[in-house]
Structures
1.
Amino acid sequence: MKISDIDREIIRFIQGDIPVESHPFASLANHLNLSEEQIVERIRDLHDQGIIRRFAAILRHYNAGFRVNAMVAWQVAVEDADRAGMIMAGFDEVSHCYLRDVPEEFGYNLFSMIHARGDEQINTVLKELSSQTGISDYIVIKSVRELKKVSMEYV
Amino acid sequence: MNLDSLDRQLLNLMQNDFPLTTRPYLDLARKLDISEDEVLTRIQIMKQRGLIRRTGAIIDSRQIGFYSTLCACRVENEQIDKVAAIINAQKGVTHNYVRDHFYNIWFTLTALSQDEAVKIIKDMEQTVGIKILTMPAIKTYKIRVSLNMGESNED
């Protein structure tokens, strides 16, 4: 999808951290010679078009008390993936769920990311996910150390 | 950090229902029945303490033509930092973790196109001298990181 120069400037501004001030879009509006209302209108359009998936605060999980995250990879028949994926998506503790094209040597193709306050909660969610989907073949791939975490800069 | 009920309500609103208006913090203040200044101050404190990473747009990279994939590789323990530095030098690498699995380095790569991603990975493989598995998502069932902060410390 082609995006206009104005939208590119707007995306450049909102892909990062907007200012914590009374009129957060005023500086951008000024820079682009638009009104704040026009900026917000463009952001809403980008949201409606699906280019902006969400406009929100992003927290640091660990500092917010969600001390544990687990990437879980499940082995599922491709034709059964939608059913299982939808069930997993319904869990609050599951933040991401994807069917992936994986090399045969790895084999686990349905991925879910679980955030929780502790190991106990992770284990409870895992049991529930397994019993509701009927998938018993899965591996938990826990993170040991963060090497990089940044937001993507698209423009 | 210690969060009171207003902080928690504010974080829940900012994650799930951030107002797309010219005065988002004023609108949040009205919802919580406090002043805009108090909202701004509370957010500043929670940013300084590392609880809020950023506030802004989450872009759907596919909608603007980007390609992204999860990657994994196996690296000898003593080589991890050296390999991580090479991987992390790529701008499109947004997340990178050491994980507890045979494949011990897992990262995400976002690139302008699939061709570019393939080229970046090939270059990395040559520089590092290891094989990198790619696991692009073929279906997305959920992407929504929202941490339920509850209403009090007891939650």
2.
Amino acid sequence: MVAETEQPRSTWHRPTTFYDHRVKWGIYVALAAFLAWSLWGILAGVGLSRFTEGLGYGVTLLQTMYPPRTEAGDLVRLGDRLLESVAMAMVATAIGVTISIPVAFGAAQNLVSRPIYLLSRAIISISRAIDGLIVAIIAVMAFGFGPLAGIIAISFKTVGFFSKLLSEDVEDINMGSIESVESTGASRFQTLVYGVVPQIVPRFVGLTVYRWDINIRASAIIGIVGAGGIGQLLMTAYSRYEFDYVASILLGIILVVLLAEYVSAVVRRRVQ
Amino acid sequence: MSVESVTWERHDRRSRLLRFAFALGGLIVVLASWQYLELDLRDFGGATAAFADLATRMFPPHLEYAPEIVAPLIETIHIAAVGTMAAFALSIPVAYLSAENLTPNRLTYALGKVIVTVSRSVHTIIWALVFVIMFGPGALAGTIAIAVRSVGFLGKLLGEELEEIDAGQQEAISSTGANRFKTLLYGVFPQIKPAVVGLTIYRWDINVRGATILGFVGAGGIGVHLYTAVDSFAWRTVAIIVLAILFVVILSEGVSAYARTKAQ
Amino acid sequence: MLETHDLRKVYPTGDEALTSISTTIEGKEFVAMIGPSGAGKSTFVRCINRLTEPTSGTVELDGTDLTALSSAELRDARRNIGMIFQEYNLVERLTVMENVLSGRLGYVSNWAAFRRKFPQEDIELAYEILELVGLGGMENKRVDELSGGQRQRVGIARAVVQNPKILLADEPTSSLDPETSHDVMELLTDIATDHDIPVLINIHEVDLAVGYADRLLGLHDGELVFDGTPEELTDDTHGVIYRGEELTTTEAKRAIPAGGRR
């Protein structure tokens, strides 16, 4: 240190989070190359002119969408299907959350044996990795068109999401209060009811409402592959080029989604 | 502590009643929904059997088909990468507009909020439907759909990040005589850099997942092949595609998690 | 030489934070401004480099009226004014060296700033000053890893590296423990002597001010009610500053020579 201070130094290089500056630049170059390759991959087949042309079609599309269709019969169908979507979200949330409870406890490291833990974690990973529409498209083929396939798909997605977050809360449980209940001579079930449940109920309610909000969004589009709800109507109108009706449907979806988001935010604030 | 607070709540009759009403209301709504959808418990019993049946049909996965899905898988990754990159570039001005402390005036603030809300309340797949009409079927439409949906996400979260920056750091830099650009560079950007990098990588990870389904509406990626396979009941092919998707998604999740810890 | 004339600040809420402050600071004077919280000490210091825009009056630094400058000219003028903050206001996520070098930002191009590329002389100077403030060898540490005292030293280094004509400090010790406060005050007095520049600090700890300053300014309710050496700060004058007591005319004359001290 002293030797260093005797001579003023005239260069300084910023230390890097990477191993050294060469590694850093290597990573940057690799990343840039990857992005360039991706860009080329997307644009190679179409060219930039197709892009500008598309913007022109966009204007035409907007013109055909306006004004949105407002005939009574169409609106009734729209309302019916929207209601179906909301109902699907309700049932799927209930089913998904119910299934999630055992999975969440199974995925809490501090409560169960290793094999159960790993199994639960695998269920969670798979459920989270696969998009709901993929599950839906398979479910439709297996059980036919309609809300049942949609409910199964949304419930499946709910399990992964809900179990993961709930299991984190279960792992964070204050063991002290469990022990204090246990020390009164309570059985295992009683310990669960009095020691564990009160600690996670508020969080549980909050998560349920949050997931319900997400499920509303999901149920609005899952009909695109025939799994029931407003999405099915959207796809029909879309394939018939009834873009004014598509506009009404989209407005309906956005309205319901924003409403659900609002309700979910209000309820979660009250619970916490 | 928590046991005490619970006991206290137990004695609060009003909140107890409210909770009971809330739970009962939820239950009624779920049952009414069940009725409205004309569901039957037997359907779900049948579902289990059908899934078991499906699983046997999917086994063994059609391994010989694997080489055919490499190209669409790469296209899926391309869509996610370019879509995220474009969304990132677009989200910076959007974040600036929707940050209350930086936006020039109330009109621009409203504009920022509108962009964020519209982008976020429409699902990627619906954006894809729109862009397939405009740009024709294929990866371009999918990429734009991913980008447009991600702008709202990144714009909102980066905007919130900008709202929380420490003005003191900015002030100190400008008090040395630095101009606005340098002040942004030294006083603002270092504060939001981890969030910028972290959120972008996180969104990329989400977009890889999102890009796997774009093909259902003809917007490119592996979804096209999955759709065809499901449509022709080629369950062993479906199995290999789903496995490949699982692999890519879990891999990108790992990369994303690793890169985000590095960006702190 | 810093000269304020009739400096006034009224906030949009109608609060009059400063009422006509005229004073002169020159040489290598170490001036401490004392007064109760809310007296306007901070506003005064911030009005000098226009971090807070004064309502009326002038601030002259070596003959240039800072209040009359355009924003580009003000930027150039600010390069000559080093400022140290109560909460350090360092860029937490950058290294010590980058924080120190940011004091030279007014002298480099945008492109150089973007590449974090500073001239050799600046880097040499930065190393020298890091030694001076007792942070030799710490240049690669990130600021958020440092203690409060170390952070304030970085803050001082950032101001000194500007080669300023005056050093301003806004409550530089109030986030520090007593011992570190003494170190920082000592460092500031050393800098005033070594660099031959005046230092103006506002501070609420009177004993620190008395212990280190050459001259005290007492502010009460936005008004300059005391201007003198630490020895002249009697219990009576203390009462004037902190409780707004009236002095007898003769005492008042002694406390504030007409027209401020020249």
